[in-house]
Design a protein that fits this description.
CATH topology: Beta-lactamase
Number of strands: 17
Strand content: 15-25%
CATH superfamily: DD-peptidase/beta-lactamase superfamily
Order of helices and strands: HHHEEHEHHHEEEEEEEEEEHHEEEEH
CATH class: Alpha Beta
Largest sheet: 5 strands, antiparallel
Shape: globular
Strand order of the largest sheet: 2-1-16-15-14
Distance between the termini: 64 Å
Length: 413
Amino acid sequence: MRRVLTFLFLVLVPALSFSQKNILNKLIRQNADRLGEVAAKPEKYEVQVIYTQIDRDQNNKPTFTTSTWLLDENRYFYPASTVKMPVAFMALEKLNKLSIIGLDKHSTMLTGEGHPPQSPAEKDSTAATGLPSVAHYVKKIFLVSDNDANNRLYEFLGQRVLNEALRQKGYDHSRIIHRLGISGFDAEANCYTNPVSFFNGKRQLYFQGEVYSRFEPSFSVNGERKGKGYFQDGKFVEQPFDFSKKNFVSLRNLHDMLQAVIFPDDVPPARRFDLTEEDYRFLYQVMSERPRESRFPNYADKPDHYVKFFIYGDRPDAERMPDHVRIFNKVGWAYGYLTDVAYVVDFENGVEFFLAATIHVNEDGIYNDDNYEYTTVGLPFLAELGRVVYEYELKRKRRHKPDLSRFIVEKYD
């Protein structure tokens, strides 16, 4: 009898493990009609997806089960604004590592100018104080994906320091080597970062002069030349667009970075960001906040789903997201790429999961022509994918209901 039980254990356990690993494939296959042409032709749209289930034990300790669909860390996609997530995390970490009494994320941050075409930032009319700070920049990054906020933190960090720090944490499929949404900076100019000063009132706490640093990635990815042409300075160039000098962070790295911030105690210490408990509470607020809930900055004109692609990304602008569902995430969209990396929580139903996906929608193969199928193909797919996984999670049996109180924000502002 013991031999029979041993045999059944050896046969059934691998089968269960295989089933768990392929649950994402199963969900996509079962919902192919809902997911449309993208599910039928995923290679055309360069789709990659990661889905992580979370199960808690009696002590609320999580176990993660991750399944993927067409994930390829060596295939290039343009991450767009998702790079702002590690930039924000690393800026908070750098402040902590400086260990200067009185210096924190709320301290006034004044940016000077050095190597052209740099520009200063000494005021911020969207802040309650009228002055810039790391905290305010981080908030703008997650609320509306503000480009200038990202660039100021990139300048505070410096190119080589930022990238080498991420590599030391094991996030080695990433290169963040340029500013976003601003013209005039070539590869060399992006190596120069502005002088930065921090103040409490009129007292200077820290000064960092202009820095030149260059990061040379030691890895390569496939498919960095794309399409059949692009527009540059108003002229059409009939050759593939070269992304080899553009930012890149693999979907796996993005997923794991977010997981390290949501569950810092449940990832290897080397992969964690050096953040305080107050930093975590602050990030949970700004990552899950709707634009209308913020007073400073005021984004009352932006819809709830402005930077929430999964589940709600294709909803009418007037539709509000339910209060009991919060999405802690970062999205990116540019050059026909749409990416979302998210931790989704339903407090009412005790649901939580990670979902990360990227899709490329550029039917004509031309870049910089503002002719991408974001609203007709990309957002509908990501929203439907989110709903497919969310609906499955609502039905999925859990041995222990999770205690999600860590992620409840008492007051958004």
